[in-house]
Amino acid sequence: MLIYTTHDGGAAVALYAPASAVLPGGAGSIDVQTDYPFDDTVTVVVNNSGAKPMPLYLRVPTWATGATVDGQPAANGTMAKVQCPVGSSTHTLMLHPEIRLERWTRTDAAGTSNATSYSVHRGALMYSLPLGTNFTMYAHHFGTEDMSSDYYVTATTPWNYALVVD
Questions:
Q1: pLDDT tens, position by position, 31-86
Q2: Helix or strand holding residue 52 (H, E)
Q3: Angstrom distance (rounded) from CA 6 to CA 11
Q4: How far apart are CA 141 and CA 52, in angstroms?
């Protein structure tokens, strides 16, 4: 579910994808327009056919440290609240993602940290390099070959790149 009703008679957009919802009891509708996570803008059109303004909550992801809702700063990791008047209103969430590095440390069975790696992210996306692969089946269990088989996977292109982090 992407759109939820709230305890105070409003609605919340919790996940971002193109979507539409009709609010219960004929209170109106919500239309979410976005190409998220490949675009940084989420536009929400609210048709409030109720008798009074209603609250709309928009989830601001934790990584969106510079997000704005309708041009106003919105705290990351929260549900930003806007008021929707009776009739039609449009609200825009700008995510403004920054490129960030996440550090990963591998710990062996003895509890010793012995390797560190980094992943590169922009918003909800994690960057990766394409790898050529070779799949060699070493066991087949039932059905067709595509149904239940075990494979050895080896790289056919270079994979051991370094990222200089400083």
A1: 999 999 999 999 999 999 988 999 999 999 999 999 999 999 999 999 999 999 99
A2: none
A3: 5
A4: 62
Round to whole Å and give the CA distance between 9 and 56: 9
CA nearest 13: which of 54, 46, 49, 59? 59
Distance of CA 46 to the CA centre of its chain: 22
Cα distances from 56 to residues 144, 147, 155, in angstroms, run 50, 45, 48
Question: Using CA atoms, how far apart are residues 147 and 139, in angstroms rounded to an integer?
Answer: 12
Give, in order, the Cα–Cα distances in Å from 118 to each of 11, 53, 62, 121: 38, 46, 19, 10
